[in-house]
Amino acid sequence: MIEKLAEKIAGEIVLSERPGKTIKKWRDTFKISQKELAAELGVTPSTICDYENDRRESPGIKTIARIVHALFNIDQKKGGEVIKKYTLGVESEAIIQIREFPIGIPLADFKDVIGAKNVSSCSIQRDIHGYTIIDSIKAILTLNAMDYLKIYGWSSERALIFTEVRYGRSPMVAIRVHPLKPACVVLHAPKELDPLSIKIAELENVPLLVTKMNLKEIIKRLEEL
Question: Which secondary-structure segment (H or E) carries 140?
């Protein structure tokens, strides 16, 4: 799984239209400073800054591989918590679709794409790095506490889209009790929104969105992002 994670990160950087932004995304994910990464690579922090701001020519495959290995090495020196978190696997019958973005996408743009409305008072001025569409009923029936981590894929900075929702209370209670928080929660076509769901969202500072768009259309639009 560690090798798969390394391949995924390297692949995202190579294929990204803005590789510098993707490098920054993963450096931030690993909670590593430019100074730490530069020291591990034996370069100056300004070199890392130039790469991330696209002021240098896009790094080649060998340089990208060195960057990824440097991120892993630094994380392992700190106990390997990030690597452990992202090598848990994502297979689950409760997950309808899961996807990562090469670079952050403004949540406001994501909201518009899926025709959603922010029903909480939480700001949506933040970026997301992916999304997961979840069958909430199957999630309740099949996911234990450890399995629940699978819905976060490679990054918790994502939108969790819950389908088969009646009032929205169960997904928000799950968000409330779990230490890992998403960038936002989307409830798909709830029959009636429980005010408690909004209250939990605001307590956790997790924007709560609601959309009534057809699920197939949502999937189609998100795949085109």
Answer: helix 136-142
CB 199 within 8 A of CB 173: no
Please name each of the domains of the chain with its CATH number: 2-85 (1.10.260.40), 95-223 (3.40.1390.20)
Nearest-angstrom CA–CA distance, 206 and 156: 12
Give pLDDT tens digits for 37-63.
Answer: 999 999 999 999 999 998 888 888 999
Report how far apart, in Å, the C-alpha atoms of 46 and of each of 12, 29, 33, 50, 53 are.
23, 20, 12, 6, 10
Structure tokens at 129: 């790095």
Q: End-to-end distance of the chain based on CA atoms, in angstroms?
A: 27
Identify residue 151 by its one-letter amino acid code. Answer: I
Q: In whole angstroms, what is the distance from residue 18 CA to residue 39 CA?
A: 24
pTM of the predicted model as reported, rounded to 2 decimal places: 0.65
